[in-house]
Automatic annotation (TrEMBL):
Mitochondrial trifunctional enzyme catalyzes the last three of the four reactions of the mitochondrial beta-oxidation pathway. The mitochondrial beta-oxidation pathway is the major energy-producing process in tissues and is performed through four consecutive reactions breaking down fatty acids into acetyl-CoA. Among the enzymes involved in this pathway, the trifunctional enzyme exhibits specificity for long-chain fatty acids. InterPro entries: Thiolase (IPR002155), Thiolase-like (IPR016039), Thiolase_acyl_enz_int_AS (IPR020615), Thiolase_AS (IPR020610), Thiolase_C (IPR020617), Thiolase_CS (IPR020613), Thiolase_N (IPR020616). It comes from Lates calcarifer (Barramundi). This is Trifunctional enzyme subunit beta, mitochondrial. Pathway: Lipid metabolism; fatty acid beta-oxidation. SUPFAM superfamilies: Thiolase-like (SSF53901).
Length: 449
């Protein structure tokens, strides 16, 4: 009888084990569709602008990320078919920063490279462009990445001064030159400073975030609590060695940098002392609950699964369905995640409960909280539901780790891959808002361990 009972228990265990195995093997692979994988992702430490990177140029950071990727993967430099980088505020001397960084990192000059810009989802666009090239059979291995360098942004002369200077360059006689010089007025010397503002509405993003938070009833306390959560989780992840995409970088004539320097857990009392940064005196967006100006670069190696395995790589994750969305840049500027999430879930045939890991871009705490409230609304998100906080941005986010505009997308995707490995999940979801009222969402599937 005992033997019979043991046999029954063993059969029951085998049945349960096979059931679990079957469930965990559910995949988004489709017949006839090429599997595309994330092999590796790296980034330079993200630093507050004006700190250790201050004397560099954007391509220096991008080059460091590319060299870090080469070092970590050991991929032969001539095995890469294409390189794509995202950036937002371009340095005019290196407008195709992808090409300059690739040459600087030692890639073959036979590898084409181009730069894309799509505000805060520029490196998301770089990655999905890579996916498209591989899916189309044009390439087997593409490096995508992003860079932003806010320590030194282009500051222009006024338009009148520029016109005068261009005319001076064309002047043929001394008289013409003297006449043009004499036309210069003091007002012409006033520079044009760049601003994080919408061209179509002339409104700064912080101002939009403040209005969005007000529209969805997000309080100052809620925003400060979320920001404190982000910094606290980031510090914990940093201390526990979870931010394994960060590479050390020897800054010329400076120190070796090996970790992000914007992670600063505070207290609710300290944060409450800060004044509104945009809408004064009654706004709720402050320096403490906003992402800060950041310098940094990221890079990822994306390949067809077939090529990756043939070269002996163990991929980190599958890159599956993705969508781009766009809406009114005045009243819905930062609602990209709300519009993108239900669409990408529908494409993938998944529900919110299927997602194990969420990584959303944190532009402002008010923006995140407004999106979470909107996603719970029938009117906005087809009642898709809200991501559970126990799965949401558990290693910090842009508020704490930093947000180099062009580089954040690769950080989000690499973090999802690492969290899926660490937590044993199957599916992850990345979502981000961007200037222009645009947004991106992508489903990532864990690679079998």
């Amino acid at each position: 009888r005992l033997a019979h009972s043991c046999q029954s228990l063993l059969l029951l265990y085998c049945f349960l084990f096979l059931s679990v195995q079957t469930k965990s093997k559910k995949t988004l692979a489709r017949p006839g569709v090429k599997n595309i994988v994330l092999v590796e992702g790296v980034r330079t430490p993200f630093l507050l602008s004006g700190t250790t990177y201050a004397d560099l140029m954007p391509h220096d950071l991008a080059r460091a990320a590319l060299q870090g990727l080469l070092h970590k993967t050991g991929i032969p430099k001539d095995a890469v078919d294409y390189i794509i980088y995202g950036t937002v505020i371009q340095e005019v001397k290196t407008s195709n920063v992808a090409r300059e960084a690739a040459l600087g990192a030692g890639f073959s000059d036979k590898i084409p490279a181009h730069t894309v810009t799509m505000a805060c989802i520029s490196s998301n666009q770089a990655m999905t462009s890579a996916v498209g090239l591989i899916a189309a059979g044009q390439c087997d291995a593409v490096v995508a990445g992003g860079v932003e360098f806010m320590s030194d942004v282009p500051i222009r002369h006024s338009r009148k001064m520029r016109k005068t200077m261009l005319s001076l360059n064309r002047a043929k006689t001394l008289g013409q030159r003297l006449s043009l010089i004499g036309s210069i007025r003091l007002a012409h010397l006033s520079p044009e400073l760049p601003a994080v503002a919408e061209f179509s509405t002339a409104e700064t993003m912080g101002h939009s975030a403040d209005r969005l938070a007000a529209a969805f009833g997000v309080s100052r306390v809620e925003q400060d609590e979320f920001a404190l959560r982000s910094h606290t989780l980031a510090k914990k992840a940093q201390d526990n060695g979870l931010l394994q995409d960060v590479i050390s970088f020897k800054v010329p004539n400076r120190d070796i940098v090996s970790k992000d320097n914007g992670i600063r857990p505070s207290s609710m009392e300290q944060m409450a002392k800060l004044k509104p940064a945009f809408i004064k005196p009654h706004g709720t967006v402050t320096a403490a609950n906003s992402s800060f100006l950041t310098d940094g670069a990221s890079a990822v190696l994306i390949m067809s699964e077939e090529k990756a395995l043939a070269m002996g790589y163990k991929p980190k994750a599958y890159l599956r369905d993705f969508v781009y969305v766009s809406q009114d840049p005045k009243d819905q500027l930062l609602l990209g995640p709300t519009y993108g999430t239900p669409k990408v879930l529908e494409r993938a045939g998944l529900s919110m409960s299927d997602i194990d890991v969420f990584e959303f871009h944190e532009a402002f705490a008010g923006q995140i909280m407004a999106n979470l409230k909107a996603m719970d609304s029938d009117w906005f998100a087809a009642d898709v539901g809200t991501p559970p906080m126990e799965k949401f941005n558990l290693w910090g986010g842009s508020l704490s780790l930093g947000h180099p505009f062009g580089a954040t997308g690769c950080r989000l995707v690499t973090t999802v891959a690492h969290r899926l490995q660490k937590e044993g999940g199957q599916y992850g979801l990345v979502a981000a808002c961007a200037a222009g009222g645009q947004g991106h969402a992508m489903v990532i599937e864990a690679y079998p361990q």
